Structures are given as C-alpha cells and as structure tokens.
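In the current project phase, the collection of sequences with tokenised folds has grown. One resulting record follows, to show the layout:
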Amino acid sequence: MNMPIHEVLQRVSETLTARRSASPETSYTAQLFAKGPDSILKKIGEECAELIIAGKEGSQLHIVREATDVVYHTMVLLAFYDLTIDDVLLEFRRREGISGIDEKKSRGA
C-alpha cells in the first residue's frame, strides 16, 4: 500500500520531534540535536555538497539518495527550531503562482 508523500513527511516530522528528547547514545538525530545548530548546519552543507557531486555524475539513484539526505537534515534543522515540514509546505503554497523573480523582489535586498 502506497502512502501519500505528505503522510510520510508528516511521520518523519513526528519522529524528529520525538528524537529531541531521546538519548544521544541511542539516536543519530538526538546526537545532532545535542550538538546544536552548528553541527546540523554543517551536516546540511556536507549533504548539499554530496548532492552537487551526484548531480554532476548524473546517476538518478545517487541524486535521489543525496536529495533525501538534504531534505532529512533540513527537517532536523526545522525540528531544532520547533518548525516542521508543514511550515515549508505552507510557504510553498504561499509562493504558488508567484513568479520567482517577483517573489525574490518581495523579500527586499
């Protein structure tokens, strides 16, 4: 049975929230939370670099796996700041139908 993708993302968000109180000895995600935002951001940077390399190689499977790592670690950062993927999806909804050029202009310099 295939679960709608938003349900998968919601379950991951819920798991991340639960990991905030987990022991760093038993959870990789809890280790990231314990180390704080600098470690989370460093991991996002590493995963983005790996995604760039995968994109240069052109392997679809490698691209998907690295993109998943980027999304996961981004979701860890969101959870660290009491945000969820729903906050990102709401922002996508707000931007839907708006030109990327106009949206960037609306943010100011």
User: Anything to note?
Assistant: The chain is about 75% helix and 0% strand. The CA atoms of residues 47 and 69 lie 6 Å apart. The chain has a mean pLDDT of 91.
